[in-house]
Amino acid sequence: MESYKGVVVFLIVGELINSTRRKVGRAIRDRDDSLIRRLARCQMEAGAQVIDLNAGESMEKEVEDLLWLIAVVEEELGPNVRLAIDTSDPKAMVSGLKACSGRPVLNSVSNEKTKESLLELAVQCDADIIGLAMGERGMPKTVKDRISEIRTLLRKCEQVGIDHDRLYMDLICMSVGSSPEQGRAVLDVVRRTKEELGVKTFMAVSNVSFGLPNRRLLNRTYLAMLIEAGLDGVILDPTDTGVMETICAARALTGKDNYCMGYIRYCRNRRGDG
Q1: Following DSSP, what letter does each residue of the chain receive, concatenated?
Q2: How far apart are CA 166 and CA 139, in angstroms?
Q3: Which of 23, 102, 108, 157 has the maximal Cβ count within 10 Å?
Q4: What's the confidence (pLDDT) of residue 1?
Q5: Extents of the domains making up the chain
Q6: What pLDDT score does 271 carry?
Q7: What's the gap between Cα 214 and its chain centre?
Q8: Torsion sign, CA atoms 249, 247, 163, 77
Q9: What are phi and psi of 27, to 5 degrees?
């Protein structure tokens, strides 16, 4: 959606091709490429720069299913399409990253011991990385815990020669319905990550509203707050017009969209006259 001279300034990863969604899982199982093609096309046309692929629901057939997804999406959008390989299975991650024609995104790596080999794999495959601010102690609860995990992952990246520019740190958004303090905690950690560590920040914003009514309202509002705090990327449904409008407007209003040109282009494209 937003780039300047080919450099992405706000990363949008489309989340819709995920086997945990019933229709997608059925399409993968039945090899219904028409649905996968439509989802890939509509997300890219809506503004996603990267298409996330998750085939993990089948478990024992994950590698086979993932390779099928990659082939279908690349055939539909071209070999230069950027794909995020979203799996917790190391074998599937290796197969998926190596099958991508364009520069892939590894989604995701953490400080857990079982994920240590993924950083070297990212180097081998020239992949960008979505990192989780999480380690052996599980989901972080405080700003301090998240900052500590980020520092650890940054050191590991440096050890294998991964530049910070290739890393997006997922600061782990949680539902405010069950953990009311997490909304402010994540805003605080976004600010501190940008100010103290200079690494790009990333979020699955929709997690904030889990279990609550009118989730879209909460998601859009929180997204605007996160952008003001310094958010650099999201994984979401880019076909949700309200969310995309929020991204454009928030970046324009916070001075992160030079002369509001991204906002102007978006509005013109929505009208169909630009």
Answers
A1: -EEETTEEEEEEEEEEEETTSHHHHHHHHHT-HHHHHHHHHHHHHHT-SEEEEE-GGGGGGHHHHHHHHHHHHHHHH-TT-EEEEE-S-HHHHHHHHHH-SS--EEEEE-SSGGGTHHHHHHHHTT-EEEEES-BTTBS--SHHHHHHHHHHHHHHHHHHT--GGGEEEE-----TTT-TTHHHHHHHHHHHIIIII--EEEE-GGGGGTTSSSHHHHHHHHHHHHHHHT--EEEE-TT-HHHHHHHHHHHHHTT-SGGGHHHHHHHHHHHT--
A2: 23
A3: 108
A4: 45
A5: 2-271
A6: 78
A7: 23
A8: negative
A9: -65, -40
Written as one letter, the residue type at 115 is K
User: Who contacts 160 (Cβ-Cβ below 8 Å, separation ≥6)?
Assistant: 119, 120, 123
Cα 259 to Cα 68: distance, rounded to the nearest angstrom: 42
Burial 87-107 (b: 16+ CB within 10 A, else e): beeeebbbbbbebbeeebbbb
- Model pLDDT, residue 6: 44
How big is the chain, counted in residues?
A: 274
Rounded CA-CA distance 1/4 in Å is 10
pLDDT along the chain (274 residues), means of 10: 57 97 97 98 96 94 97 97 96 97 96 93 96 94 96 96 95 96 97 96 97 97 98 97 96 95 90 61
The pTM assigned to this predicted structure is 0.94
pLDDT of residue 146: 97
**Angstrom distance (rounded) from CA 48 to CA 244:** 10
Please tell me whether the peptide bond between 3 and the residue prior to it is cis, using omega within 30 degrees of 0.
no
What does the pLDDT read at residue 5? 43
Distance CA 63, CA 133 (A): 26
